[in-house]
Amino acid sequence: MGMILIDLDKCFGCVKCRRAHPGLFALIERGVRAAVCRRCLNPPCAAACPAGALVKTEGGGVKRLSMRCVSCRQCSAVCPVGANPAYLLEYVQYPAYKIDFEKCRKLCRRGAIEFSDELPEGWVLIDDGVGARSYGWR
Prior knowledge:
The chain is of the alpha+beta class and 138 residues long. The protein has one domain (3-133). Helices cover 29% and strands 17% of the residues. It contains six helices and six strands, in the order βααααββααβββ. The strands form two sheets. A four-stranded mixed sheet has the order 4-1-6-5. β2 and β3 form a beta hairpin. The longest helix is centred in the N-terminal third of the chain and has 14 residues, at 23-36. The chain is globular and about 40 Å long.
């Protein structure tokens, strides 16, 4: 198996996979942030975080340090483009390598999880072997 692809437009709002494999939500969160974040010069989400859990990366994006996050969702309230959806901001993040993607693919009625030999054009690499895309969020 080459790449696991998560289509954020198809999976938006569904929580079946969260119950089956909570670690998938960590990847979905990173995918949404990669697709939506406009890489603010001075990110208001990072400034609003009382725990210092959001840090600006070298590429200009924002990364959440989940072990620091207190799930206050202040970042969600101040982000001008919605890159931090409140429903994704879980206090506990589970490792992505423990996810049974085949089980999640079968659970998803919307077909949001697919497999491919390579990362298709227009998709963003969010983890080793995991890509995401969203046209609706842009």
